[in-house]
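anyone seen this seq b4? input:
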Amino acid sequence: MFTRRRFLGLLPALGAAKSLAAASGHVPTRAFGRHAEQVSVIGLGGLDLGRAKDQAEATRIARDAMDRGINFFDNAWCYLNGRAEEIMGRALDGVRDKAFLMTKCCSHQKPLPEGGKEGAMKMLEESLQRLRTDRLDLWMLHAIENPKEIDKFYGPGGTAEAFELAKQQGKVRYFGFTGHSDVEVHRKILEGGFSFDASLQPVSALGTLQSRKFEAEIIPELRKKEIAVLGMKGFGGAKRAAQKGLMNAEKVVRYALSYPEVCTQVIGIDELKYVEEAALAAGKTPMNEKERQDFAQWCDRMGGAAYAMHCQPGHRDGGGCGSVA
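predicted toks r here
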């Protein structure tokens, strides 16, 4: 049995496991929250994979990532109006069993006529069809922003019931939620009592005092509940910080993995040449706490918040407008 004591006891050993994996030329792994299952410390973002120049390039990116030990693949029902899932499904065709496959349910954002549970289940079937699989490893409620969305999730006929049904049907193994707007909303959904396995959190030196509350306040709560922490927004949700020389893959990954609770940092890759850069970054030693704080302060002085798309008013992931990069 994977107990809380075992989970917490593993955290100090993660650095040693990481070094051994890096020495072998393979992307290291970390435990997926309270579960013994291992996931790669960097994950491949489905939105940017869907923006590769063509299907052949997307397939090369996915296969090269797998060859380097990246097994975590992220997506969402709404990305590029479904095309992102279709492209990933074709890229993983024949090797799906080697992937830890995650996609997101967007029923509270773009409700189908059925709404709630029915709409979520319809989205699940569409995601499975697009991804060319009969099961997901992780299904997440996407981008929660306000208490009404949480009430809808937990309410009669809500998406929480779809989560339970999907598990009963053997179509989903683990469940989670995402969001990057309001820490109080995250507290509220955690207080609701659903047994989440993971949460996708903004973990980025590019941000504001408000956005960094997720790192300072929510990540510790997730650790207490033994919920796997997945990181996003390392590049701020766009390429601008990288283009300005403010950010690169090594900085993103070393910053994110300085939190032992973060098992995977999702990175958007739309060109094959960036796979090696990300994989090499995964083998670097994570920042220590002081380095992390100093780097965040440096980003602040360099105007990093201006490059954090996820902190801009009105920004919301999905439909091709946002990114987990």
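Residues 4-311 form a domain with the TIM Barrel fold (CATH 3.20.20.100). The first strand starts at residue 29 and ends at 31. kinda curious what u guys think
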